[in-house]
Amino acid sequence: MSILKRWPKRREFLAYYMLLVYSKRKSLETINAGEAADVLYLLTGSRRLAQRLLRTLVRQGYLKRVQPLVYSVRDLDEVLGDALGHYIASRLRRRGIEASYDPRRRLITVRDDAIECDKMNKMFRDLGYGVECLSEA
Fold first, then answer.
1. What values do phi and psi take at 47, rounded to 5?
2. What are the pLDDT digits (tens) for 58-109?
3. Which of 1, 100, 104, 109 has the fewest CB atoms within 10 Å, i.e. the most exposed one?
C-alpha cells in the first residue's frame, strides 16, 4: 500500500470520495472493480477512464486490494493519518533527526536525545501517534 506522495488531483480525490460515500451508504465492506467502475463512470463519462482512475486510486493507497478485483475503500481519517505520520517523519529527518513511521502500529520511531523525544512524545500522543525513542548510545 502506498502513501500520499503528492496531493491528489481534484478528479482523483472526488472519485475516492464518491466511492467512500457509495460504500458507506450501501454498507459495503468491499466493492468489486465492476461496481466501482460503474460508480466512477458517472464522474468520467468513459468506462476506460473509470478503470484507469480505479487503478490510480489503488496505486495511491485510497483503495486496498482485498482479493483480485475486490477492493475496500480506506477511511479518510486512515488515509490522511498515514500521510501525516509519513510527513512528520520526513520533516524530522530534514531537521537531522533519524525518524521512521510504521503505519500499521501508528508509531513514529525517533533516534534522538531524551529531552527532545519526551517533548515529541507528549505532542504526538495528543495527535493519536505513538513515539518510540531510541537513544544514540
1. -65, -40
2. 998 899 999 999 999 999 998 888 888 888 888 888 988 888 899 888 888 8
3. 104
Do 67 and 87 belong to one domain?
Answer: no
Domain hosting residue 62, numbered range? 10-74
- C-alpha to C-alpha distance for 38 and 40, rounded to whole angstroms: 5
Contact 112, 96 (CB under 8 A): no
Q: Check if the beta carbon of residue 30 is closer than 8 Å to that of residue 72.
A: yes
**What is the widest separation between alpha-carbon atoms in the chain?**
60
Catalogue the E-assigned strands of the chain. Answer: 31-32, 63-67, 70-73, 98-102, 107-111, 130-134
